[in-house]
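It is worth pausing here to work through a concrete case rather than discussing structure prediction in the abstract. The textbook approach is simple: state the sequence, then state the predicted structure, then interpret. We follow exactly that order.
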Amino acid sequence: MVWYRRTFAAVVAVAGILALAIFLRLRQPAGAERPPYQEIPPLPTSPQQEEKEENKPKNLVFSAPERYQAVTVHGAELAGKEKVIALTFDDGPWPKTTAQVLDILKQHQVKATFFWIGQHLQNNPAIGRKVVADGHAIGNHTWHHRYHRVDAATAAREIDDTAALIFKVTGAKTFLFRPPGGNLRNGLAAYAKKKKHTIVMWSISSADTNRRASAQSIIHSVLRGAHRGGIVLMHDGGGNRSATVRALPHIIAGLKKKGYKFVTVPELLEMCDKELKSTAASQSVKPVTAQPAVE
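Step two, the predicted structure:
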């Protein structure tokens, strides 16, 4: 009888735990378990928001030429004499800092490429719209900015839901992707390649995420590493980027002094594609050899 009582008590205890779990689950508000990827801002309701929706760019696409689709690029090898360089900013849109970066770029008439984190765009949609309105290019930087390995389903949510929000907020589609931390082996870049995205890395690091980085060290890193066709990595979000903001005007002035012109990543890859096509065309045309005259 002792074992029977113990078994009965154990069954009652388990049943009680299950009942409590069911009760607590029923008390959760609707949508409590909704994954953060799905928390996209609601559709516009006010006249002001509707006006913004009407003014959003139509059919705006940020992509690379076909040869660079599903390919990882660190920069462009340009044979021409023109010195061009692409500034890129990660981890935004970010309160205050992104607006400061935009003001500096506008003042110096420079276009750049911004790689956005989905949840940051969700929190700062107005800043995101301003980036696109100012004529800059946009790339996908995942929803959460995670470094660890993810399965295919998680990779899809991280990238696709960010892309959906970018389109919802700005009306733009992007096929440019930058993996968080430059990690190419955690499943995110592999999924992006399946979607024919261009994996945009960098060839010049500003090292502005280093806690000890100063404006002067950031300026030095960029100017020292500058080269024709280079892609510069900087950050406008994800933390205190005041040093980057202070460095930016000096970086632009220093690069201009060296003879550089500024382009977006899509523009840079388009230039490289045209050069390659031109070279291929010239090599395919065989020179005509003069034939001796027949008397």
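Step three, interpretation. Residues 20-38, 40-48, 287-295 have pLDDT under 50 and may be disordered. The radius of gyration is 26 Å.
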